């Protein structure tokens, strides 16, 4: 589901009594400042105004994003898990360790890339984010992407892929094929948690093949 679809869903909710719709001016940062400062500003604006995170309960802290604000490569996951909720940093649990291995295998370090999630607060019991939650929180992700301006986004798992690509197709169908979000190349692939749960030669080969495509794209862009 993309932002537009999520907003339509939310408009229906409004008709049924919910009185919030995200407004763009809430998300404005100071355009002349550097990306790092703008991300910090956005993080503060998020914490002060995100109707999803302000209303949600059962989480410890918001988890905004981490990494190089000028990164060529951005990874986008679903929402913080238990360990991320405790540390305030995305992808630091078991899935995060697998993601770190993948980044290292790609010849990079975690500090080289930027990592964020669709939702900035942990859903209770790690359930999948609802359309309404995405409609409220994802405008901040959209703004994060606009500030970092990566060349390539790796969408980790179905919710991130479906949000960025405005589709309801499943990850098995989407993965491994280049798509586009706001003119940025997007590679949908398995979520590292899915990979850990289904750790077969087939899934590992598929994910590595997706990452090789990403490396080739970044390499090509460097030479041109
Ligand atoms: N899974 C996600 O999608 N994001 C995290 O930050 C951790 C686990």
Description:
The chain is an alpha/beta fold and 224 residues long. It has a single domain (3-223), classed as Uracil-DNA glycosylase-like domain (Uracil-DNA Glycosylase, subunit E, 3-Layer(aba) Sandwich). 49% of the residues lie in helices and 12% in strands. The chain has helices spanning 3-15, 35-49, 51-55, 82-87, 94-105, 131-148, 158-165, 171-174, 192-197, 201-223; strands at 65-67, 73-77, 114-117, 152-156, 179-181, 184-189. The protein has a six-stranded mixed sheet, sandwiched between helices. The structure holds uracil (URA). The site of uracil has 13 residues, from α5.
What distinguishing features does this structure have?
49% helix, Uracil-DNA Glycosylase, subunit E, six-stranded mixed β-sheet, alpha/beta, binds uracil, 224 residues
CATH fold name: Uracil-DNA Glycosylase, subunit E
Major sheet details = 6 strands, mixed
Class from secondary-structure proportions:
alpha/beta
Number of helices: 10
- From N to C, what is the helix and strand string? HHHEEHHEHEHHEEHH
Number of DSSP strand runs: 6
What's the overall geometry? globular
Straight-line N-to-C gap: 34 Å
CATH classification class: Alpha Beta
- Specify Rg, calculated over alpha carbons: 17 Å
User: Which ligands accompany this protein?
Assistant: uracil
Number of domains: 1
Helical content band: 40-55%
The CATH superfamily appears as Uracil-DNA glycosylase-like domain
């Amino acid at each position: 589901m993309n932002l537009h679809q999520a907003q339509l869903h939310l408009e229906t909710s409004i008709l049924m009594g919910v009185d919030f719709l995200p407004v763009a001016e809430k998300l404005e940062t100071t355009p002349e400042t550097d990306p790092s400062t703008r991300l910090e500003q956005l993080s503060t604006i998020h914490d002060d105004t995100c109707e999803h995170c302000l209303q949600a309960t059962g989480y410890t802290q918001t988890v905004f994003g981490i990494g190089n604000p000028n990164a060529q490569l951005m990874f986008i996951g679903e929402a913080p898990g238990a360990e991320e909720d405790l540390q305030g940093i995305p992808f630091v649990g078991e899935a995060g360790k697998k993601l770190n291995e993948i980044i290292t295998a790609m010849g990079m370090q975690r500090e080289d890339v930027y990592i964020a999630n669709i939702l900035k607060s942990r859903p209770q019991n790690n359930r999948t984010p609802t359309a309404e939650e995405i409609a409220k929180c994802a405008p901040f992700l959209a703004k994060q992407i606009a500030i970092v301006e990566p060349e390539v986004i790796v969408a980790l798992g179905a919710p991130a892929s479906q949000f960025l690509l405005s589709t309801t197709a499943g990850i098995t169908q989407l993965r491994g094929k280049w798509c586009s979000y706001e003119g940025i190349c997007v590679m949908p692939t398995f979520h590292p948690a899915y990979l850990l749960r289904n750790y077969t030669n087939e899934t590992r080969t598929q994910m590595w093949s997706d990452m090789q495509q990403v490396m080739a794209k970044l390499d090509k862009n460097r030479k041109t």
